[in-house]
Design brief:
This protein has about 650 residues and is α/β, with parallel strands linked by helices. About 40% of the residues lie in helices and about 15% in strands.
């Protein structure tokens, strides 16, 4: 049995489906990862599941006024949450037979429909929430009974959880529930302690407790305390003909559950410390221990094996995040022979965790809209999924949490574009734009992640793929050689052929809110020099050349001297009266000939831009290459000033 679908209307961020989107999410039987920025609706999805299914920890789950969707100043007064559970075993179906729904395809599902109504406060009356959960689609069946409740409770791990507290002994402790549900617990409730042969060690837990209680009660210290209390104090309270006596015990009730509630689960001390010494361990490993214990319960139980985990990365360093994610994925997809598969629904804000996950298991949540990234939902091909699983890393995985994404092919764009955007009053940071540097390969794999397969619905996150046209201007023929195998220079193409090259690059990756921006002439650096940032690029490349000669970035007096020399050389070059194309070619030449690093030049250019001496605001924006202007407008929504 697994959760197949969750629907909700007017619950928190989710509306009625017209003005505001409603919740309608089909889940995988295995791993389901909810990604997206803060306040997008991920926790609302988790809480919708908790509200209708309840939890194995028997926490008090109820609806409040604030759970009802609000639009403007108007709060709705009714909501519903519907959970559809599929693939019940014959035993599970038999247990909940009267609540089952017969589907058109002949299968049977268990549908729980929570209907709630908020009654606003009135004179002398407090507001209240009335709720009822019934079976069947749209709640057409009977009210849910206890048999259903005990079958469908979900395991919930809250964010920033106190794992140590969860694993301490106590009444209805989480550990006692895990122990009580373990497959090897059968028969342990029998007291096999033989009072006539007290030295025989029992095999069952209850018998072992009786054995320990008997022998502790015979200990001189315990007997002495009992006698002192009874003879010297307690009996003095007794009336004539009565006797008051007490006994020191570990467990007055020799039943299995009270015994299990006395256990605690804790990590052994780290290497080098005796295992019997008590030693506090870090929050991260205690959380890992807690998750491990919950997986044992889910694997071995007969009920719904659904694990809700919010932010498993809490308290975990990146490498441990990856290990935890792999374990959860393995439990959800390949649990091993004889082990039950666990359905996992997880929320995360961690690029490290997202980088290690299968993109097909992710669902992007953006402003209360859910967009599955499964195989049949995006324009990604099977080979794309395989490529991205191998090559996406934490720096690239930040795209799953961004409000805008700039996909670039090299470090120069990744380093310099944010600085240019900041100087042009179109800050990427302010607009939540992430840079994804694909390193010259794979741009088209990444471009298709946020494109829907049906082209009907667009994910409202702007994506700009920024790439070079790679057709060499004729003015660079003195340092770029012609190719005998393919066309390289502008003069070798007709106007229509150049347009076809650009259109082909766009068509390969463009779709939905993903746009491809091809350089207007040659490359990022050349176009910057051509369209209005010639001095900036000349000085940045000059500094990069000096740094290349030194083998390290310039500092202090060396940088000041290099900048002074760059200024003099720029004045001389500018006075030569070169046409703009020739000037840009001369500036760009050291990067082509590897006399300077593109990445280092971009670092210096970003540093120079930040000084404000090379333009800022709208004036600088108008001097950027047109394709960069269009990309910035798409990413930030801020167009050119009128």
């Amino acid at each position: 049995m697994h959760l197949k679908r969750i629907r909700a209307q007017n619950f928190r961020a989710f509306g009625e489906g017209t003005v505001s989107p409603s919740l309608d999410w089909e889940l995988s039987p295995g791993m389901n990862i909810l990604v997206g920025e803060n306040d997008a609706g991920k926790t609302a999805v988790i809480d919708a599941i908790r509200q209708v299914l309840w939890t194995t920890s028997y926490e008090f789950v109820r609806l409040f006024e604030t759970d009802f969707h609000i639009s403007g100043a108007k709060r709705t007064t009714s909501l519903f949450i519907e959970a559809t559970l599929a693939d019940l075993s014959p035993e599970q179906e038999a247990a909940v037979l009267e609540w089952l729904t017969h589907e058109a395809d002949g299968s049977r599902s268990l549908i729980l429909y929570l209907q709630a109504r908020w009654v606003p406060p009135q004179e002398n009356k407090r507001g209240r929430v009335d709720a009822v959960t019934r079976a069947g689609r749209d709640g057409a069946g009977p009210e849910i009974g206890s048999a259903v409740r005990e079958l469908v409770r979900t395991t919930y791990l809250r964010p920033l959880r106190d794992a140590e507290a969860e694993l301490r002994p106590g009444r209805q402790s989480r550990l006692s529930q895990i122990l009580a549900a373990h497959k090897s617990i059968g028969g342990q409730e029998k007291n096999d302690f033989n009072v006539a042969a007290p030295k025989d060690i029992p095999k069952n837990l209850v018998g072992l407790m009786a054995f320990a209680q008997h022998h502790l009660g015979e200990h001189d210290v315990i007997k002495g305390v009992e006698q002192d209390i009874n003879d010297n104090y307690l009996n003095k309270f007794a009336f004539a003909g009565e006797e008051l006596s007490s006994r020191v015990q570990i467990a007055p009730d020799l039943a299995l559950q009270p015994i299990l509630e006395k256990f605690e689960l804790s990590l052994l001390p780290s290497v080098g410390i005796h295992p019997d010494e008590r030693c506090a361990r870090g929050l991260g490993y205690n959380n890992a221990l807690f998750m491990a214990s919950e997986l044992v319960l889910l694997r071995d139980g007969d009920e719904l094996a659904l694990l809700l985990v919010e932010e498993p990365e809490a308290h975990l360093h990146p490498q441990l995040q990856e290990r935890v994610q792999r374990l959860l994925e393995e439990s959800a997809t390949k649990p091993g022979e004889g082990k039950r598969r666990v359905q996992v629904v997880m929320t995360t804000h961690s690029p490290s965790l997202a980088a290690g996950a299968d993109i097909a298991s992710m669902t992007l949540v953006h402003r209360a809209q859910l967009f599955s990234l499964a195989h049949d939902k995006t324009k990604l091909k099977k080979s794309d999924y395989e490529f991205l699983r191998r090559f996406i890393d934490a720096t690239k995985a930040n795209l799953f949490f961004a409000r805008g994404i700039a996909i670039v092919e090299g470090p120069a764009e990744a380093l310099l574009l944010p600085a240019l955007a900041e100087a042009c009053d179109r800050s990427f940071s302010h607009h939540g734009v992430s840079i994804v540097n694909v390193g010259g390969v794979g741009l088209y794999h990444y471009a298709r992640i946020l494109q829907r397969a049906d082209d009907v619905v667009k994910i409202p996150i702007p994506v700009a793929c920024i790439t070079d046209r790679d057709i060499v201007p004729d003015v660079a023929n003195d340092y770029v050689e012609k190719s005998a195998k393919k066309k390289r220079f502008e003069s070798e193409y007709t106007g229509d052929e150049i347009m076809a090259v650009v259109k082909a690059k766009e068509a390969r990756a463009q779709g939905g809110n993903t746009m491809v921006y091809v350089s207007d002439r040659w490359t990022f650096e050349y176009d910057l020099a051509l369209y209005g940032c010639a001095e900036l690029m000349f000085k940045a490349i000059h500094l990069a050349k000096k740094a290349e000669a030194r083998g390290e970035r310039l500092d202090g007096a060396d940088e000041v001297a290099a900048l002074a020399k760059a200024h003099d050389d720029w004045e001389a070059l500018n006075a030569a009266g070169h046409a703009p194309e020739k000037l840009a070619s001369v500036i760009y030449q050291p990067l082509v000939e590897k006399d300077a690093s593109k990445a280092v030049a971009a670092q210096y250019a970003a540093y120079l831009v930040a000084t404000g001496q090379y333009g800022k605001g709208e004036e600088l924006f108008q001097r950027l290459p047109p394709y960069i202007q269009r990309a910035m407008v798409h990413l930030t929504g801020k167009g050119a000033a009128a």
